User: Which sequence fits this backbone?
């Protein structure tokens, strides 16, 4: 089975993120195993619990949740990129998280792991 | 144990200080280098501005991440390529703030880039 890792650097309201989701769906449909999606730069914003996208617009958050839940697809966030954008899992006195449960905080080392393990790595 | 089975190209086409792309690309390069992966840097388009010598950032209240380029050699990142056409289009001299920069014409630049397994662009 072919293996793929994907890097997403665009925010949830970007159409390039929609392209990434379509690309992943298509790869899965064609029997490619996706070993992980790594979110870097503005891509980390896809994990925010505070997004409010208009009802008639593309619901990227729901799509990431669907991809994760339906395919056990690991979604890795770059912690440094996340912190810069106000995202974290231990915020304030109550150690609150504003990251959706489907996403895992990790570091750039995870990106190197993914690049090493996957036959292909594609950045969108 | 991490495989060392792939070569990685980091393609820079953004200028240094109007976005974080250059800094984010450098962070990735240094991480790949620290894992001893075969990593090369490519600069084309406005990305060539990242290599130009004597840039001063205090007056624009920016941290000068270009100074960190000096660390590349300690991570064994020795393949650094810049596109000659992009330099010429901007009338920039090949006066860079790091050593080991190879200036290539468009064809050679493209050839080098496309023999890497993974291309990440910023």
Assistant:
């Amino acid at each position: 089975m072919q293996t793929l890792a994907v890097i997403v650097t665009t925010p949830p309201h970007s159409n390039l993120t929609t392209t990434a989701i379509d690309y992943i769906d298509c790869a899965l449909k064609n029997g490619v195993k996706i070993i992980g999606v790594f979110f870097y730069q503005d891509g980390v914003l896809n994990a925010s619990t505070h997004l409010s996208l208009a009802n008639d617009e593309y619901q990227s958050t729901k799509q990431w949740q669907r991809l994760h839940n339906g395919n056990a697809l690991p979604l890795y966030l770059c912690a440094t990129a996340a912190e810069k954008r106000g995202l974290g899992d231990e915020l304030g006195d109550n150690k609150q998280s504003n990251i959706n449960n489907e996403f895992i905080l990790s570091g750039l080392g995870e990106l190197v792991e993914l690049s090493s393990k996957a036959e292909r790595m594609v950045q969108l | 144990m991490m495989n060392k089975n792939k070569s990685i190209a980091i393609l820079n086409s953004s200028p240094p200080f109007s976005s974080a792309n250059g800094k984010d690309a450098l962070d990735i390069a240094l991480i790949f280098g620290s894992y001893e992966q075969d990593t090369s840097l490519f600069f084309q388009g406005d990305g060539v501005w990242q290599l130009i010598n004597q840039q001063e950032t205090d007056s624009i209240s920016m941290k000068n991440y270009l100074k960190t380029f000096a660390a590349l050699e300690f991570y064994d990142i020795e393949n650094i390529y810049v596109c000659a056409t992009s330099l010429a289009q901007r009338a920039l001299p090949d006066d860079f703030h790091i050593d080991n920069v190879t200036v290539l014409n468009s064809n050679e630049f493209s050839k080098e880039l496309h023999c890497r397994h993974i291309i990440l662009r910023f």
Observations:
- Residues 7-121 of chain B form a domain with the Hypothetical Protein Ychn; Chain: A, fold (CATH 3.40.1260.10).
- Chain B has one domain: 7-121.
